[in-house]
Amino acid sequence: MTDLATNTPEVAAGSRSLWAVAMIRMRRNRAAMASLVILIVLALAGIFGPMLAPHSYAEVYPEFVKVDPSLEPYPQEAQIIPSAETALRRARVDIESIEVGGGEVVIGLSSSREIDPRITRYVDRSDVFSNAEITEIAEDGLSATMVADVQQLYFLMGTDANGRDLFSRILISLRISLMIGALATGVALLIGVLYGATAGFVGGRVDNVMMRIVDILYSLPFVFFVILLVVFFGRNLVLMFIAVGAVEWLDMARIVRGQTLSLRRREFVQAAETLGVSGWDILRRHIIPNTLGTVIIYMTLLIPKVILLESFLSFLGLGVQEPLTSLGVLIAEGAKNMRNAPFMLFYPAATMTILLFALNFLGDGLRDALDPKDR
């Protein structure tokens, strides 16, 4: 009874699948689990953030261009009076007095001719004021009092060169960049792993022919390929980055082929062949699982590579189009305004850095967890 009770946990542990053991080991890696939490938070921010943000990512505030990040609401006190004067400049009235208080601005007006009550529209068009109305007007119509609410606008990360909320644009850029990375990497993973594992396992002439096809595809100009897609299918974002993945699988195929060549003569593969296991089952159960560590590490490097490639295509006018944006585009815009608005570069770059660190730590954790040599 004692020996049986002692051996039971070992039997249970030995019966665990590769994925069950990998999950147990993954949970012990604090850096990987913290990175996984960060990636989930970033993904949720990208999915739901633009819907919950105080400003639309496409909304432009011409009077708040490149304003600094602040926890205090805009406009600032020194900005209210000049904004009122600017708004009423085209109304052809004279400003007698301006009083600010209690979230309102009271403006005394006068004119050499009768004041039209519709001049409130000039104030309402401003980003600073809303709900403007004439509260008092003289009997001769040559003087009046206008009251308007002072808007409370929060720009936690400042605004860009067009006056758009940078926080909202970072949220939508997270959605676009993660979608691009997931689509392109998923396509590259699917094609590259199957193609490379098949070429390496079959070997011989089939391997030579398959790898020569890869060499031919390497020689094709990628940008020309993308331009052709745009001409034939239009600027479809999903199609564009499925196409990116359909090109990026070439490196994945070579890596998996190299791993497969080193695995196909291993004892466990020969034992499976001796037992009559089919080639597809050997690939699925033995070859591909043993290449997952390397594949996942390359996958974590491929996602940022695709994000940077997307920013290059957007610079050429072939990728993400306004008003949509991505982290690569925001970083490129921030670099242009680095001297007078450094926050435009800092926040997108910090977001990208956190994303890349999380991907790398998670990749290392998955590699350690899935490495059969360490089981």
UniProtKB/TrEMBL annotation:
Topological relation to the membrane, as annotated: Multi-pass membrane protein
Keywords for this protein: Cell inner membrane, Cell membrane, Membrane, Peptide transport, Protein transport, Transmembrane, Transmembrane helix, Transport
Cross-referenced Gene3D superfamilies: MetI-like
GO cellular component: plasma membrane
Broad class of the protein's primary localization: membrane
GO BP terms, alphabetized: peptide transport; protein transport; transmembrane transport
Transmembrane spans: 31-53, 176-197, 209-231, 237-256, 287-307, 344-363
InterPro entries xref list: BP-dependent_transpt_permease (IPR050366), MetI-like (IPR000515), MetI-like_sf (IPR035906), OppC_N (IPR025966)
Subcellular location: Cell inner membrane; Cell membrane
Domain ABC transmembrane type-1: 174-363
Presence of keyword Transmembrane: yes
PANTHER family the record matches: OLIGOPEPTIDE TRANSPORT SYSTEM PERMEASE PROTEIN APPC, OLIGOPEPTIDE TRANSPORT SYSTEM PERMEASE PROTEIN OPPC
Sequence similarity: Belongs to the binding-protein-dependent transport system permease family. OppBC subfamily.
Protein name, UniProt field: Oligopeptide transport system permease protein OppC
